[in-house]
Each structure stands twice: as C-alpha cells, then as structure tokens.
C-alpha cells in the first residue's frame, strides 16, 4: 500500500501559524519589557561611559611627557574595548544568560589568538615599552646590534631607521628591545679620545704639548673638563700618545676628523714622526 505524501498547509493554516508566532513574540515582549528597557539603557549608557573614559584617558596620557601619542591612543583603545566587553556581559545578564560560559569562551579565544600571534604581540609589547621608556626618540642616532643609524619612525610593530650611508632599515621592535641600545645623541656632551703613535726616539713631552695646544686652539673643545694628554701605550713600533677632550655632541664627528688631521700636520711641522710598523730580524749564521 503506497503512502501518500503529506498535504501542503492551506493558506488558512499558514496564516494561523504566522499569527501564533506573532502572538508568541508579543507575549515575550510583554513578559520581558522591563529587561529589554534595562538592557537598552545599560547598552547606551555603557557605550557613552566607555567613550568618555577612553577619551579622558587619552587626554591624560597625552599631557604626560612620559607617553608618546601612539602609546596614548593604544592604551585608550584598550580601555574602550575592555569597557565594551563589560557592557556586553552586563546586557546579556539582563536576559538571564549565563555569562560565566561566555567569559570562559572569550578567555579561550584570547589565549588561542595570543598563541597564534605570539611574534606580533611581542613586537607590540616591545613597541609600547620603547615608546614609554624612550631609550631613543625620532631624530636621535643609535647603535644597536649591527646597525648604527638615525631613528626615522617608531611604530607599535617596527622601528624605521636610516643608516649614515642613506640606506633604509626596518627593524622589529622585539629585536630592538632585547638588545643593548647605545644612544649617540641622548647626552649633550661627548668625549673624544685620539691616539697618535710616535717613534721611540721622539719626545713624549713634546707630543703631549703639541696635542694640548691643538685642543686649546679649537673653540669647540670644552674647557671643563679640561683636555688631557697622556702616554697611552708602548707598542711594537711606536709610542701611543693620547688626547682626551670633551665637546658638544653635535660637534663630535667633525671635531674628531679635524683634530686627527691637525695632529698629523703639526707633528710633521715640528719633526715628530709617526712611524710605519717595523720588525727586527736577526740572522744567525751556522
């Protein structure tokens, strides 16, 4: 015996089903009207408070000289998103939703995302530390690892450098933060140390006097601390005579070049030799 297919609902039955569904929605609205109003109020007020607090946090951070504007914007966004999460959980709790499971799911998602983006988050954390601690700022020259360059831009993920030969370098922030950083421009003054080799037959006293005279004649050399001339080393072929002077950081490179050139010219003028490397060879017969 064949089984006939189920008959399609008639238009009257369809209208009755629609009416029943509409009535159930209306009944649910009537039963939960207070929860709905409370949830909407919590949502609107919560979003307004989150916006106000995030802007207030950004303004407060921008007023502090310890925080870069990038860090201020980043931290204010964290405050805003955290408050949004609190508002969302509060709204769901208005309808009796079990928020503990939602929080556990969000925690699991955050852990999974953190593991997947471990390298990226490490760069972000390092970028925040660089912007907060300020071991260097834009425009300063630094020496780190194999790079000696001027800082062009500091971002949350990478730092852009310009080497002295004009090459562009982009370095992940985690690599910068985990290396010793030498800031070449942080302090207003720097010390120059110049070592010049003279022959063993030459006068060390005369060499020191010549170097000190060169320092006194250059107005870029600071008087305090006063220049120092000394015997630095006794090498195989020469005696190393040193000069230490202090100058403004902006004058460091050019002054070092000028003192080196002037020392060679003055030593030639007064007869102090800068010997070539020499080696004595003794021949033993038989």
Automatic annotation (TrEMBL):
Task: Tell me how this protein sits in the membrane.
Answer: Multi-pass membrane protein
Q: Name one Pfam family in it.
A: MS_channel_1st_1
In terms of InterPro entries, this protein maps to: LSM_dom_sf (IPR010920), MS_channel_1st (IPR049142), MS_channel_C (IPR049278), MSC_TM_helix (IPR008910), MscS_archaea/bacteria_type (IPR045275), MscS_beta-dom_sf (IPR023408), MscS_channel_2nd (IPR006685), MscS_channel_C_sf (IPR011066)
Output one GO MF annotation. Answer: mechanosensitive monoatomic ion channel activity
Domain named Mechanosensitive ion channel MscS C-terminal: which ranges?
192-274
* GO (cellular component) term, any one: plasma membrane
Cite the Mechanosensitive ion channel transmembrane helices 2/3 domain residue spans from the record: 77-118
Transmembrane residues, as ranges? 33-53, 74-96, 102-125
State whether keyword Glycoprotein applies: no
Cell inner membrane as a keyword?
Answer: yes
Q: Boundaries of each Mechanosensitive ion channel MscS domain copy?
A: 120-186
Localisation: Cell inner membrane; Cell membrane
Q: Keywords for this entry?
A: Cell inner membrane, Cell membrane, Ion channel, Ion transport, Membrane, Transmembrane, Transmembrane helix, Transport
Role? Mechanosensitive channel that participates in the regulation of osmotic pressure changes within the cell, opening in response to stretch forces in the membrane lipid bilayer, without the need for other proteins. Contributes to normal resistance to hypoosmotic shock. Forms an ion channel of 1.0 nanosiemens conductance with a slight preference for anions.
State the family it belongs to. Belongs to the MscS (TC 1.A.23) family.
Q: How does it assemble?
A: Homoheptamer.
Name of the protein this chain belongs to: Small-conductance mechanosensitive channel
Q: Which organism is it from?
A: Alteriqipengyuania lutimaris
